[in-house]
Amino acid sequence: MDLPPLYRVRQLFDVSTVADVPAAVRDEFSKFDWQAKVRPGQSVAVAVGSRGTHDLKFLVASTVACLKSMGLKPFVIPAMGSHGGGTADGQTRVLAELGITRDEVGAPIVASMDVVSLGRIDSGAEVFFAKDAFEADHVVAINRVKPHTAFRSAVESGLCKILAIGCGRQTGAAHLHRYDLGQTIVPAARLIIRKAPVLCGLAVTENAGGGTHSLKLALPEEFPALDSEFLKIAWTLLPKLPVDDLDILVVDEMGKNVSGAGMDPNVIGFWRREGGIRQPDYRILVVLDLTPHSHGNATGIGMADLTTRRVVDKIDWESTYLNALTSGVLRSARMPIPVENDRLAVEAALYRTPDPASIRMVRIVNTGELETFWATAAVASELKAQKNIAVDDAAWELKFNPEGRLLPMMD
Asked: What confidence tens digit (pLDDT) does each residue in 120-140 have?
């Protein structure tokens, strides 16, 4: 089959960043008087999630250094619900791949799946919290604030979520996901703040290029307001494709380090995860690979229409099913049609299009890297008229190796 040529498109995003992340963290800690809140020798559980935050290692290491400067004894705990296969060893490995090890951040990693129940909120949801964090003298949460992949609310992913879902571990995450998260996360976080020794939280936002755009330290009672404030900023920074109508979207890779949903529904269309209005309308979605950092967790594969045998061979079904059952989004673990290789996957998608000459197709690396992508002529010609977008005049060919694997676009 003749494959259509593609044209490189580059989006000009706001990529302003915090110039010196460790210095900014130190500056945030210096704004508070900690003497009345802490005593030298006290323990601090630093809750760290599984999201691939760009400067996570520096955020954690700087926070640990600030706590040590107060005479405290910090240790890091995984705060990632059921990720990492829902095991302590698996979650320790996830942190290590994100650069969070004792040698890198200066504090021991203490992993466990044990939780304690803190009671119920008005909705009836029972709130669980990490046992080791509850028994520490203090808890510090670190998280990126961003739009959630499954619901809309004034508070979505951020400090409240890492307390309520991440620190709830598999038990707590599974229980809260039975309820409306948009109405549950803040009340659950407030219950935790009342009953657990939460000292403060460090919230960050990221620009479309992956750099730290802003960060702020907050006292626990300020978590909901800061989450809401930073969410508004995060929405302005969220990278998206500047086109709403495609016949085919080819995604080179999906994975848990890209998005908690494997592929961000805010990019590929919320309807693919939750149903509803098809906006944007990308009619056929092809996903070609699963990132190594996912450890076989292919949550979100159900949002694709076509995939490859390579993806199927990498899937750890137990981990994937556990994540889907915990989140309650069962369709996230459904299987698209798998074909033998990338070439056949792309050709199968093209075969569904009556007029290949006018095909509207885009290729992206993943839903987190959208500064540069490749589009067919029908799409590229429209994008040339848009602001903050540059389109190459030269055409690029889709090239495959002898095994049918799609090769990266290279100059």
From this structure: 999 999 999 999 999 999 999
CA atoms within 13 A on the CB side of 331: 10
Instruction: For residue range 73-130, list pLDDT tens digits in order.
Output: 999 999 998 888 889 999 999 999 899 999 999 999 999 999 999 999 999 999 999 9
**What distance, in Å, lies between the first and last C-alpha atoms of the chain?**
24
- HEC readout, 242-253: CCCEEEEEEECC
Q: Is 393 exposed, middle or buried (0-12, 13-18, 19+ CB in 10 A)?
A: exposed
Tell me if 214 sits within 8 A of 230, measured CB to CB: yes
Q: What's the whole-model pTM score?
A: 0.83
Whether the CB-CB separation of 143 and 163 falls below 8 Å is answered with: no
Q: What is the DSSP string of 338-402?
A: EESSHHHHHHHHHHT-S-GGG--EEEESBTTB-SEEEE-HHHHHHHTTSTTEEEEEEEE---B-T
What torsion, rounded to 10 degrees, do the Cα atoms 203, 84, 79, 191 define? 110
Domain assignments of the chain as residue spans, ordered by start: 6-13+239-396, 32-237
Report which of 336, 373, 156, 126 is spatially closest to residue 246, judged by C-alpha positions: 373
Q: What architecture is domain 32-237?
A: 3-Layer(aba) Sandwich (3.40)
